[in-house]
Amino acid sequence: MAKLVSKTYGDALFEVAAEENRMDALLDEADGILTVLRENAGLSKVMTHPKIVKEEKLDLIDHIFKGRVSDEMVGLMRMIVEKGHFGELESVLEYFIAQVKEYKNIGIAYVTTAMELSDAQKEQITEKLIQTTKYVTFEMHYEVDTALIGGMVIRIKDRVVDSSIKTKLYDLSRELSKIQLKVGECAP
Questions:
Q1: Residue 151 belongs to what domain range?
Q2: Which NCBIfam families does the annotation name (predicted)?
Q3: Quick one: which H or E segment has residue 146?
Q4: Cα–Cα distance for residue pair 102/138, rounded to 1 Å
């Protein structure tokens, strides 16, 4: 259900952004609202509390956001509150942001390595990704995980390229266990 809610409202916001040629402005607003939501956990608690009536929640949305973000964004948030889906607002905005980035051919890559990369190495990875994908630029997210031993794991959307030594060792041990089973099966 949550995925349906985020897709429905996210697609509607994307259509408005495209029709009114306001993609960048609404993208910035969505980023800003996400920041507010993430930095103010109390706001989400109030907005999803069952004993606080919708009218008070709508007044709170107006008080916090009206005049600071566009009427379209305030209207979207009010609609989400009226339908009782405020708990899904973050996923709606994340979905919208992903749609805009896809539309603008901005890839989002998550790179995990065994050790910290230099700026030159990061630049090489970005250039290689631009050459081998449809994206014209990338938003890169780097993480260090020493358990990888060496190599790296790159995730773009639902696609994963895993060249880590940890995975290679795991695959090798699986292959060896299959061989041992076959040898054991042949014994008299």
A1: 105-183
A2: ATP_synt_delta
A3: none
A4: 11
